[in-house]
User: Fold these one by one.
Assistant:
Number 1:
Amino acid sequence: REAALNTKKRSISIGTAANIDAFHTDENYKKILGREFDLLVAENVMKMDVMHTNIDTFDFSQSDELVSFAKQHSMQIEGANLIWSNQVPAWITNGGYNRDELLGIMKDYILNVVGHYKGQVKSWVVVNEPLDTNEANQKSIWESVIGPQYIDYAFRWAHEADPQAKLYINEFDTELINEKSNSYYALIQGLLQRKVPINGVGFEGHLDVAIQYPYDQLVSNLNRFADLDLQVQITEADIKLQNSPDPLPEKFKQQASLYADIIHACQEVKQCSGVVLWGFTDRYTWIPNFTHHPDQPLIFNAQYQPKPAYNAIKEAL
Ligand code: XIL
């Protein structure tokens, strides 16, 4: 089967995050989700606060719904994410657990979840956003209680639970070559030196038309990680318009050409497995909640009309 968006060179996957509320209430949403993409990531329902409801309880009901939809539509499933600073259940953040206890909770969680989806979820974001853990909004209980070794443990347990699954690390604002992506690179080199079982590097791709992303730099940045013999992937692409003063039609064009750049960059980098969008319709994008400004970062408008960005991606694929 070919996803409608993916008709010509079939070299990379084209994926999207799926929003469970839209999935439950909006038939148009489901129709496009099943038609246009060949990879699905749950936007929220495969995160720890949803799946690990208490120390001895797991809830896979909503994630199972998305997984069975993906299977029916021959879409690959990516799991996101196992360990992150955010969306940690309150019973953990308020639990006062010590290092050994928290490691025990982590191990039990990873073995259960990855075990539950063994053979079905082909790739996992094992550790999400390991950098910036000192910022107030990114304070990670994992790093502060366990120490930086929490990353090694998480990958080793995920590998133990499903040795076939491709295991990714994931980070934002690392698309270009700069101080942050250099730190990301150094962190990953350390993992490889310690023989941590990592297969891939995710670059979120929350971009902005008001910022320049020189194409050659996107490619050379992806290439330096790929040269570590790892897969790379754009994991959460969306492109904000709100920060540009240009007229809307102009912004739509810039957005379209930046989406095309990401697709082309991924096609050009041999080990790039695909591009995943963080949703597909402006009707349900997370951006306005996050930035507190209206925005239109995705490829269909709120009425499900394809935007110039949609056509640019279709043309590029
Ligand atoms: C976001 C979701 O889109 C929102 O609905 C939720 O309220 C917060 O999380 N980086 C990530 C994603 O890795 O998991 C985040 O998703 C967006 C930023």
Number 2:
Amino acid sequence: MQIASLLPGSCCDCMKPAAAVTLRQMQTAYIGMGANLPSTAGAPEATLAAAAQRLAALGRVAARSHLYSTEPVGFRDQPRFVNAVMALETEMPPRELLERLLAIEREFGRDRSAGIPNGPRTLDLDILLYGDWKISEAGLEVPHPRLAERGFVLVPLNEIAPEICDPRTGLAVAQLLGRLFPDSKGVSNAVYWLESDDWRAGADLGAGLGRS
Ligand code: ADP
Ligand code: MG
């Protein structure tokens, strides 16, 4: 009998056990967070602070950006968003991580059936990057497919990880940001810092604000 057939998750045609089943490797996942409607936790700032506590249960928080007030993109007739990015060191495989993020969104009142694309939402949690992995599956694409075109993602991501590489383009986050906003004035109204006691108070998360 072939050894591969004894291993759970072995693939039938290559004798190698499927890595996701047999090996759990620590990776750094960058999670994009956004909200522009109140939730059961309160205003968007409070929702993001409460969601950060949930994320901390999925791994180790290595860094978190400040909060940013951002202009809506796509569908403009809605309140400004509050956005942030967190770096999470985790052994959780990406599909499981996505399922946990979607469950946290639902906990804070996200209702996709009633939503419109790019429309108002109580909470949005996205996997922006997962180590240097590239994933293209039904319902899961990593790096996030719209990473390079969203200032509200790139500005907070650049705050905590300017040198990290987007494996799809081979460009660092700081380069992607420079491409999106060649003129630094363009970014100032679209995305700016937001002071929030709720967010600042999360010292127990293990990472202060800004770079780790
Ligand atoms: P967006 O976050 O781009 O504004 P949505 O929050 O409405 O869009 O997400 C729509 C779907 O995108 C989700 O149901 C999820 O399955 C899928 N998706 C694909 N890749 C990712 C990813 N990397 N992170 C989060 N969701 C993703
Ligand atoms: Mg999303």
Number 3:
Amino acid sequence: WSSGNFSWTKKLEANNKKVFGNHSFRPNQREVINATMSGYDVFVLMPTGGGKSLTYQANIPAAYLSANMEWTEQQEIFRELASDYCKYKLLYVTPEKVAKSDVLVRHLGSLHSRELLARIVIDEAHCVSQWGHDFRPDYQGLGILKQKFPNTPVLALTATATASVKEDVVQALGLVNCIVFRQSFNRSNLYSVIPKTKKCLDDIDKFIKENHYDECGIIYCLSRMDCEKAAEKLQECGHKAAFYHGTMELSQRAFVQNQWSKDEINIICATVAFGMDVRFVIHHSLPKSIEGYHQECGRAGRDGQRSSCVLYYSYSDFIRVKHMISQGVIEQSPFTSRKNGVNAMNSGGILETNTENLLRMVSYCENDVDCRRLLQLIHFGEKFDSAACKKTCDNCLKVKSFVDKDVTEMAKHLVELVKLTGGQHSSSHILEVYRGSLSQIVKKHKHEIIRLHGAGKHLAKGEASRILRYLVTEDILVEEVRKSDVYGSVSSVLKVNQSKAYDLCSGRRTIVLRLTLLPAFFLKLQNW
Ligand code: ADP
Ligand code: ZN
């Protein structure tokens, strides 16, 4: 399908340049177009941002129909569809509309009999499948299209489908001899997660100078203020940097984009997606979901050249992001959770989904053992053998020395300590009490006399906090924000999620953590 020997090839290449301003096609774009133009049913699995829309839409007259439009407006469109000189080349409809509107289906029939129905495109096709993460019953009604118009090619596209979801979609839509284009979500980027300190911006400056001097990059920041600060700091350090955020006027954004295209700047500190291809992507704070992270990183290395994706992670950023999500301060994630096939529509709601997505992101960052690619790809239902990473992520690069440690007792103690202290204290306070601190603040609350004070004194601080954070990512302990200030810093207290803690406390659940052996640990062993 990649060959250039079709009657439309010349026009296709020309339009890619003229209409879209692209130099070339992305992987599978040309193939998908050739297959659908040849009249086949086609199923496309392509990551978000991969360029699906180019395969079916261009700068051409289009209209849309949805159920909440005025009836007169709808009739206007129907009239146009019925006319011999219909000006629309593309009609967008919601699946609800197809399922419920006989009028629409009749009009499609009329277009079909006049040989004007060239193709049916179904975007977000995974919604057809009950096995998918985002099942929508109305999508199943789309099967009617192939029944009524068996000879009209269908192009089904999605960014998330396991093999069984794909089968389900093909069945439900009635696709025949369908050609499948499946693209791996794996990218050749170098992934790493680095502990975030107060000198994060200095670290970023150094990282860029050492690895990507004068190359293009995006730095994703959490807030507008962070963005502006980062840009200012990088300018001081001699980089051609600018900021770019959601609250900027369109004209301001256009100005920045113009500077970028003239090469006057090559580093963008952004809160929102910046649509340019780059050599490195840095996350100055925690992304909101693995899907979002994967997509943002996808801006790097589109040309196949080695590119870096560095994430600066701190647990306190997690609490900050969590707070922002609950306040609706940051845009709601368009991504739904894949875990157990639940989503915002049929589980607890958008807030729970966003929080769950954030917790998965935290556990990605907390994990210092497993291959980063593997951790990302399991979210997209893709199998991956971490040997294929070939040490292109920080975890694979590490000398692998770790132990699987049963930490059930310690986990129980931590949960119990949170209960004993009344769910009123921060995670760092709980860790202090657990490790037997006699600090003023511990004494002030009389926590040195509490049962389990010092129960974890044999543990290294890092190890104890790793266990505690694991309990948070499993939703057994919950960080609840108490206070926040205008500078965006928040303080929080730990609570026990009784229903999730039950299995652990009643002895039905064991917790085994894979812990990396740090150099300090080896030193201790040698001294022994
Ligand atoms: P998807 O629908 O797969 O999420 P889009 O169709 O929205 O992705 O495309 C993502 C971005 O990639 C858009 O900004 C688009 O302009 C750009 N893009 C698509 N195809 C190409 C190409 N061949 N070359 C350069 N940019 C492209
Ligand atoms: Zn790896």
